[in-house]
Amino acid sequence: MRKSLTCRMGFSPDGLSGANVRSWWVRKLILLGVLLSVLSQGCRTQQARPWLGVHLGMSSDRQAAALTGVVGQIADLGINVIIVEINYGFEYQSHPELRSPNPCTKEQIGKLVAECRKHHVRLIPQFQCLGHQSWSRNTAPLLTKYPQFDETPGLYPENKGIYCRSWCPLNPEVNPVIFSLMDELIDAFGADALHVGMDEVFLIGEDACPRCKGKDKGELFAKAVNDYHKHLVDEKHVEMLMWSDRLIDSSKLKFGKWEGSENGTASAINLIPKDIIMCDWHYELRPAYESVPMFLEHGFRVWPASWKKPEAAKAFVDYSLTLRSNPRMLGHLNTTWGAVPIRDLPKFEPLLIATSSFKPQPAAATK
Fold first, then answer.
1. Which CATH class is domain 51-357?
2. Low-confidence stretches of the chain (pLDDT beneath 50)
3. What does residue 344 show for φ and ψ, rounded to 5 degrees?
4. What is the DSSP letter of 264?
5. Spatial CA neighbour of 308 closest among 334, 280, 279, 341
6. Cα 88–90–94 angle (5° rounding)?
7. pLDDT at 367
8. CA distances from 138 to 125, 141, 219, 239, 350 (A)
């Protein structure tokens, strides 16, 4: 019975000899090669699917419910990744003192997770690390509750004279707190990745910090990146994303102090792991966006990101498409930063530009 089944399936050379056996094996090896080629091509096609994403802030159940209500609509447009910047807007159990007012609940996030999975949308939480620990006169909960973590302790009352506060990357008490918050977000979102922010870090290696004073700012920034990578990638086994502006040397690529670095952090690019996904944001119209090929040449995966200006978004998308043959050029990320209500995301013009530009083109007719 076993032999008979094998023969019917065509995998037994019984009864053949000499040249016929060799011919049988050649045919089988050719068929196996074709099968492996088809499977390999299928995997490459699946991997090459562009990442079409949207980034937005989400710090309350009301915002989470609003996003849940439009997931299906933006998925129909082609969006397959959503980044939600939640920061302190979650009902943390490990450090409830760090919750912002009216935070997202695990129950409401569960509903958002379910809706994203229903529509095959990857949902990635973001926790803003190192910088952006204040906005205007308001200081975020971490440095409010633990002022000893501040990079510039006691300075800049009411945050006057600075853009945003930073925590100290060398304070050994910071990471245990932050990592517990990250772990809760990964659990609540069932996440396979986490975005660590790290954009627009201006206060680093400050003379006011007894630990960081006099130290190389690029090395300090790299240490922070590597600390988060070790926890997220090595220990939690999730992917890590970050904003890339602090790694762009504006003395070489003229992006200025916002979209690039003028404060010495750019040297960190050679000191951090290459499996981090670089979210490369540029919001103005330019003839070229040279940071994208720069990051690709360094071996990173790059996810270009635009904002609210349609003409700038289109220029960045079009430029990125010229690099589409590189498998590490991922697609396009649409940031929002309050420019559009969540309910109107399906009508957000820059998002529509990106999703329509990355749609597969019809195959050319063949004779």
1. alpha beta
2. 1-14, 16, 21, 24, 26, 30, 34-47, 362-367
3. -100, 5
4. S
5. 334
6. 85
7. 35
8. 23, 9, 29, 31, 30
Handedness of CA 132, 133, 134, 138 (dihedral sign): positive
Q: Are 291 and 262 in contact (CB under 8 A)?
A: no
Residue 247, token pair as written in the block: 């790694």
Tokens 């090459």 map to which residue? Answer: 48
Say if strands 277-281 and 239-243 run parallel, antiparallel, or are unpaired: parallel
User: Would residue 36 be called left, alpha or beta, if left means φ above 0 and alpha means ψ between -120 and 50 degrees?
Assistant: alpha
What confidence tens digit (pLDDT) does each residue in 66-106 have?
A: 999 999 999 999 999 999 999 999 999 999 999 999 999 99
- Tokens at residue 150, please? 């501040």
Question: What are the structure tokens assigned to 178, written together?
Answer: 């932050």
Give me the residue spans of the domains in the chain. Answer: 1-47, 51-357
Per-residue model confidence (pLDDT) at position 48: 63
Q: Which residue in the block uniquely carries the two structure tokens 């409401």?
A: 108
Q: How, if at all, do strands 193-197 and 122-129 pair?
A: parallel
DSSP-derived 3-state class of residue 302: strand
Q: Which helix (H) or strand (E) holds 123?
A: strand 122-129
